[in-house]
Amino acid sequence: MKHEIKKNLYDVNVSINSIFDYLGNDLDFTEYLNNKLLRRAIEREIEIIGEAINRALKQDPDLQIENAKRIVDTRNWVIHGYD
């Protein structure tokens, strides 16, 4: 596997772990909705995940990532569909 693909997958892993750190164990959806800083932080991590998956797939279109298109689509919706 190419070094750049590994870097992108590493970034995905870091962002996923960051989301879990942000959410903690006791956070519920209402608290998420009422916390603008938390929402923005998670949105940013989703952007990073989607972009990293997109780049990895461009480097190796045969790379098997479950729900890759949905992940990239979610990133695009977060960035472009915020209104």
Task: Describe the overall structure.
This protein has four helices and no strands. With 83 residues, it is an all-alpha fold. Helix 1 packs antiparallel against helix 3 and helix 3 (36-59) packs across helix 4 (68-80). The longest helix is centred in the middle third of the chain and has 24 residues, at 36-59.
Secondary-structure element sequence?
HHHH
Please state the overall shape, judged from the principal axes of the Cα atoms: elongated
**Sheet having the most strands:** none
Structural class: mainly alpha
Total beta strand runs = 0
| Mean pLDDT value | 93
CA radius of gyration is 14 Å
Per DSSP, the total helix count is: 4
**What percentage of amino acids are in beta strands?**
under 5%
The unreliable regions are none
Helical residue percent band: over 70%
What distance separates the N and C termini? Answer: 38 Å
Outline:
The chain has helices spanning 3-23, 29-34, 36-59, 68-80.
SSE diagram, text form:
Blueprint lengths: L2 H21 L5 H6 L1 H24 L8 H13 L3
